[in-house]
């Protein structure tokens, strides 16, 4: 067990070799949300919101939806 907790220190790494972590998934754009909304089926999903309602308002909500999803993705929580 003690071998699992032993950490080897790496001392020969220069600051130029350290790269900041970049997100693996780029942020969701409003355009991507718009494309997804256009592909919605006619029947409502599990949330029972009709696709027609979302499609009717898609021009005004795409930006807000993308901001919401990106916030959830960054914080890794809904609240």
Q: What does the model show?
A:
By secondary structure, this protein is mainly alpha-helical. The protein has one domain. It is 47% helix and 0% strand. The chain is built from four helices and no strands. The chain has helices spanning 2-5, 30-38, 51-56, 58-75.
Any descriptors?
4 helices; mainly alpha; 79 residues
Topology:
Blueprint: H1 2-5, H2 30-38, H3 51-56, H4 58-75
Helix pairs in contact: 2-4
Give the number of helices. Answer: 4
Overall shape: elongated
- Helix/strand order, N-terminal first: HHHH
For the biggest sheet, the summary is: none
Total domain modules: 1
Summed over residues and divided by their number, the pLDDT gives a mean of 78
Poorly predicted spans: none
- The span between the termini is 38 Å
Strand content bin:
under 5%
- Total strands: 0
The SS-based structural class is mainly alpha
Q: What is the share of helical residues?
A: 40-55%
Short note summarizing the structure:
The protein has 79 residues and is an all-alpha fold. It has one domain. The chain has four helices and no strands.
